Amino acid sequence: MNQTITDDSSLTKKDFVTPNDVRWCPGCGDYAILNAVQRTLPELGIPKEQFVVVSGIGCSSRFPYYMNTYGFHTIHGRAPTVATGVKVANPDLSVWMITGDGDGLSIGANHLLHLLRRNLDINVLLFNNRIYGLTKGQYSPTSEVGKKTKSTPLGSVDHPINPLLFALGSEATFVARTTDTDMKHMVETFKTAQSHKGTSFIEVFQNCVIFNNKTFDSVTSRDAKQDQVLVLEEGMPLIFGANKDKGIRLNGLDPEIVTLGDGIGQDDLLVHKPRSPNSAYANILAQMTYPTFPTPVGVLRQLDGRETYEDALIQQISHAKIDKTENLQELLIGQNSWVVED
Amino acid sequence: MIQPTDSFEEIDSAVVRFAGDSGDGMQTVGERFTDSSAFAGNDIATLPDFPAEIRAPAGTLAGVSGFQLQFGNRKILTPGDAPDALVAMNPAALKANINDLPEGGMLVVNIDSFKSMNLKKAGYESNPLEEEDFRKKYHLVELDLTGLTKEALKESPLKPSEKVRCKNFFALGFMYYVYGRPLEPTLAFFGQKWGKKLPELALANSQVLQAGFNLGDTMETARNRYQISKAPVQAGVYRKISGNEALVYGLVAASKLSKRELLYSGYPITPASPILEGLSHLKKFGVKCVQAEDEIAAMGVALGASFAGNLTVTATSGPGMCLKSEFIGLASITELPLIICNVQRGGPSTGLPTKTEQSDLLQALYSRHGDCPLPILAAHSPSDCFDVAVEAARIAITYMTPVILLSDLYVANGAEPWRVPNVADLPAIENSFASPDEEYVIYRRNEETLARSQAIPGQVGLEHRIGGLEKGEDGGVSYDPENHEEMSHLRAQKIDGISKSFDPTSINGDSEGDLLVIGWGGTYGAISSAVKNLRDEGFSISSIHLRHLNPLPDDLCGIMSRFKKVIVPELNHGQLNLIIRAKYLVDVISYGKLQGKPFKVSELREKFIEHLS
After folding, report:
1. Does residue B331 sit at the A interface (CB-CB below 8 Å)?
2. Structural contact between residues A156 and A277, judged by C-beta atoms closer than 8 angstroms
3. Residue A236 lies in a domain
4. Under DSSP, is residue B351 helix (H, G, I), strand (E, B) or coil?
5. Which CATH class is domain B513-612?
6. In whole angstroms, what is the distance from residue A54 CA to residue A72 CA?
7. Is residue A114 included in any domain, yes or no?
8. Phi first, then psi: what are they for B211, rounded to 5°?
9. A340, B236: Cβ pair inside 8 Å?
10. What is the pLDDT of residue A9?
11. Per-residue pLDDT at B318 exceeds 90
């Protein structure tokens, strides 16, 4: 990041809390995510006035009103465009974009794609609850096939979009997943995202207690955690299970679950390498879902070194300024002028 | 046989039209003729006219591209109703344009292209050049441009196909002879464009241009040459400028005057793309140019950058305006400065994408949901785009509001001489940034302008949230019914109050009389010319041309009341007419035209006389 890193550690969570009443439903997963972001920002060493939170429309997009930073609650699906404008206007700002599965992957998917491919240094938090909450319970682009909602009484016939595959397909340089039930993991993931230079895409599994309660129970429930979740740690073999005895091995291009022992050791397992230049591995992870596989959480991909859009743009301007001095009068007169005397 | 002559007939003005295939380089020769005439000190107005297809099938009517210009020794306000001379490079160009050429007009044709295949493609059953009546009707000059060009380039190392492509400059050279134009600006153009990379092409074009000019001198055809002396103009430095160029320069000037960095974001669309292209070449002025993924994104990027303190602009045409509408509403409720340019073209939908129209006025006024008034300005000529851009920025920043700037294809692509302003004389644009020393209340308003002040992300202690939900004065989300009404009133009142900053409306003619013509936008030249001519003939007619379409000037009602009749000519079905009727209850005569073409002076004259008798 370009931000001025200060040693000023006097900022605390309280500095990022607004006096406004938070108006999400009691029990909504958004509270935990807000809490995690408010805990993360004071630890980044960035002055408070450098943060800008931009959102679209939806329950999650009310987020900026609850953050005591600069904030812009925009229109449905278009937060990536406004965030882009803010970042290009002032690359020193730390820009956080909040969106949801409907906002970011339905009405605004096109903008999200272009933000990710341009690789602006912006942190994108996509709250995925697989439902339209603010419009009271219609199915979303991440809802599973057959999902019965107010607008799909006989079940949804849409094949859902996989947010991580979407991000990888857009060649995002940072792709991660975390859950609203794991405060520590959220804070760690957000910090890693901020340290990445380029667009950081984070899918947050978020529970909508009213319209889609327990949709991620296979990942977030207390019993599920051990056997159904694969926690990704850089450089470590892909091991999971209550007894740490299961792992993921590659068979040709296909992943498979193996049990350790009986001639299968850790050396046979895939080792987590999020910085691999080839995205094939991250794509394999992104497609692994419970019940066939444990659902991975953590940083799937972290590709360093690709220039950000704003740096490239500013560099062109700086370069142009070295070659030629600006002179507005000369510009207006141009190369083919003539003088009329009195 | 009549001897070649060097004697010139002195005339006041002339209209020349070049027409050919869209690959024939007609726009290029038109622009060169314009430069040469500007160099000669004439006043000029141009009308490029090209098809929507980049290269329609060669030789067909669909592919005909034209360029008309009028030049004269007096103020020239329009590209002329009808050409005095027409250059037709092929039968299709002849067919598409011959009806506009008056009897006795000069007709220069490339006879080499009048072969059966081309005649058939153009829909001619027989060669019109062989018809006795046709030959008598015009002052016909038949040139074998292909053969003459090849002959002039027999020493050139270019390939035969490359040589033939130079023939447009042969035609240009010949027309330079007829109208006594200087060759220097065009020769300099060849040097600038090809001198370094393709010197043999620069040389070939120079030779062909000279050969065309020389042919005029040696031709054994009865021939007149015309001379048009310099137009009397105010002293100063002049250049030729198109509307889109002037808009680009105006925006860069406004950035300097407001001390805000300029961010432009746009999506390619005819006829606004030259603004995107023009600004992307001005990086040395710190211009940040973003080609967005769509029209909506272009607006969003501009709005985000406005929040972060830049002077921001997006430009488009009608269809793009539709897509931006929701975002314009957000810009209005968050009260952020922004310029949205609509270079109008024929609609609805894709309509006539390369033809002019003024049919987006009601869209500019009312296309948003909710009560959402915005300032609207319209440019009336190519060079006026500079002034309008600067004023749009002044209004946007002073009143903290998005501003809609209407241009149109005729203004954007047309060109005229421009007296370059002295940058030092342009007044600064004052910002109303929040002070870190005072408590920041987002919607607390300046008593005079009703504008809020702006705090920029990065300013210490002024953190705040804005957004699409209605807010109270303190910036908190408010669903309070009285507050929404109050805020809606304040936003409307702020926009209405902008009229206090306008200069009095200038009247072309007397301030009272029989007929008042009210125009706006690109019809300025045609209306002013028609009104001036009628006044010279003794008619009681005056005109005003509105730059501000919202709010309308405060003195408009009074001016209208001093005339017996009011007529509003516009290139739509009567949109300004509707506004004036609604606002002032005046029984306006509406005169609309929807042909994708500008008004002719003659048709306006006829209409005005109808209402003067």
Report:
1. no
2. no
3. no
4. coil
5. alpha beta
6. 5
7. yes
8. -65, -40
9. yes
10. 65
11. yes
Contacts of A85 in chain B (CB under 8 A): 263, 265, 290, 300-308, 312
Which chain B residues contact residue A18 at CB under 8 A?
465
Q: Is the pTM of this model over 0.90?
A: yes
Tell me how far apart the alpha carbons of residues A66 and A64 are, in angstroms, rounded to a whole number: 5
Superfamily of domain B239-425 in the CATH hierarchy: Thiamin diphosphate (ThDP)-binding fold, Pyr/PP domains (3.40.50.970)
A297 DSSP assignment: E
Q: In three state form, how does the secondary structure of A217-270 look?
A: HHHHCCCHHHHHEEECCCCCECEECCCCCEEEEEECCEEEEEECECCECHHHCC
From the number of C-beta atoms within 10 Å of its C-beta (0-12, 13-18, 19+), residue B441 rates as: middle
Asked if B286 and A64 come within 8 Å (Cβ–Cβ), the reply is no
Long-range contacts of B496-503 (CB under 8 A, 24+ apart): B496/B373, B496/B551, B497/B399, B497/B449, B497/B450, B497/B551, B498/B375, B498/B395, B498/B399, B498/B548, B498/B551, B499/B548, B499/B551, B499/B552, B499/B553, B499/B554, B500/B554, B501/B395, B501/B398, B502/B548, B502/B553, B502/B554
Q: Per residue of chain A (342 residues), what is the pLDDT tens digit? A: 444 555 556 899 999 999 888 999 999 999 999 999 999 999 999 999 999 999 999 999 999 999 999 999 999 999 999 999 999 999 999 999 999 999 999 999 999 999 999 999 999 999 999 999 999 999 999 999 999 999 999 999 999 999 999 999 999 999 999 999 999 999 999 999 999 999 999 999 999 999 999 999 999 988 777 889 999 999 999 999 999 999 999 999 999 999 999 899 999 999 999 999 999 999 999 999 999 999 999 999 999 999 999 999 999 999 999 877 789 999 999 988 888 887
Place of tokens 């306000």: B77
* Stated length of chain B: 613
Which of B 282-301 lie inside 8 A of A, CB atoms? Answer: 282-288, 290, 292-294, 296-301
State the angle between helix axes of B524-536 and B601-612 in degrees (0 to 180), rounded to the nearest 10. 50
Question: Burial letters for A78-100: b for 16+ Cβ neighbours within 10 Å, e otherwise?
Answer: bbbbbbbbbbbbbbebbbbbbbb
- Rounded (5°) CA angle B361-B363-B365: 75
Is A155 part of any domain? yes
Tokens of B518: 């009210």
d(CA B262, CA B282): 10
Beta strands in B420-505, from DSSP E residues, in sequence order: 465-467
Residue of B nearest to A61 (CA): B467
Coil, strand or helix at B264: strand
Q: Residues for chain A: how many in total?
A: 342
- Name which of B475, B482, B403, B401 is nearest B444 in CA terms: B475
Cβ neighbours of A88 in B, within 8 Å:
263, 288, 290, 301, 304-305
Burial class (CB in 10 A: 0-12, 13-18, 19+), A252: exposed
B8-227: which CATH topology?
Pyruvate-ferredoxin Oxidoreductase; domain 3 (3.40.920)
In chain B, which residues have their Cβ closer than 8 Å to the Cβ of A73? Answer: 465-469
Number of Cβ atoms within 10 Å of the Cβ of B121: 18
Cis-peptide, bond into residue B4, ω within 30° of zero = no
Listed residue (A55, A88, A65, A50) closest to A19, CA to CA: A65
- Domain of residue A24, CATH code: 3.40.50.970
What the block records as the tokens of A69 is 């930073």
Question: Which one of B293, B306, B423 has the shortest CB-CB distance to A328?
Answer: B423
| Fold match flag (B239-425 vs B513-612) | yes
The 3-state DSSP composition of chain A as helix, strand, coil percent (nearest 5) reads 35, 20, 45
Question: How would you class A283 by CB atoms within 10 Å of its CB: exposed for 0-12, middle for 13-18, buried for 19 or more?
Answer: middle
Q: Is B436 on the interface with A (CB under 8 A)?
A: no
Our CA-based measurement puts residue A296 at a distance from the nearest CA of chain B, in whole angstroms, of: 32
Task: Name the closest residue on chain A to residue B298, using Cα atoms.
Answer: A81
